[in-house]
Amino acid sequence: MKILVCISVVPDTTSKITLDSTNTRINSEGITFIVGPYDDYALSRAIEIKEQTQAELVVLHVGSSDSEALIRKCLALGADRAVRIDTAALDSYQVAQEIIHYAKDQSFDLIMMGKESIDYNSGIVHALVAHGLSYNHFSPVMHLDLDTDKLILEIETDSGKSKVSTTLPAVLGCQEPIAEWKIPSMRGIMTARTKEIAVIFPNHSNFEQHIAAHVVETERLQKMIPAENAESLIDILKSENLI
């Protein structure tokens, strides 16, 4: 069995976020970055499956060399090897295309990742990957068991929880309480130093060229309308093209 866990690298939730001088990107100076918390859940459950089944576990990240310390942490937790696609993660579609391009010839039985990253929160990368590879897809997955060649899943739905079974191969978007986060052991940390992080070039043939990004900010007017002048609210909304 081969398992691929895709990880994102995101700002720590305790970091103060500011924009750079172009007002289009996050200013990374002084920010602590972490593996996406939902991806940590996916990795933790994948490690448990690896220990139960002797599966091969590969970690994949789309990003720059700055992320290699965090990738090395994933190796210390128990992943067998890691792959970094050497390009900035610009949007969900681009990241999904990079994952698809890497995974399509690798015969992975199971691809796991968080239900969403905690920076952009798009929550669609796993769906795009599943569609691109024609794999079964479920998200958010709260519980995962293996039954021979099937997966037994508990997923969150609008009406509560549902228990389903599906065949492999599959792509899963994961969340708590699918597993508890792992802490790397000293032995794992030492072993991770010799594990491979393969760096591969991005695939630019399958998606559009990124030209520019613009952050649109809307200032709150914060106007107080006295109760006796409530009728003036209509005029203000019209003047601001809000109605």
UniProtKB/TrEMBL annotation:
Keywords: Electron transport, Transport
InterPro entries: ETF_a/b_N, ETF_b, Rossmann-like_a/b/a_fold
Cell division found in the keyword field: no
Electron transfer flavoprotein alpha/beta-subunit N-terminal domain segment(s): 23-209
Family, as annotated: Belongs to the ETF beta-subunit/FixA family.
Pfam families xrefs: ETF
Protein name listed in UniProt: Electron transfer flavoprotein subunit beta
UniProt cross-references to Gene3D superfamilies, sorted A to Z: HUPs
Gene Ontology MF terms in the entry: electron transfer activity
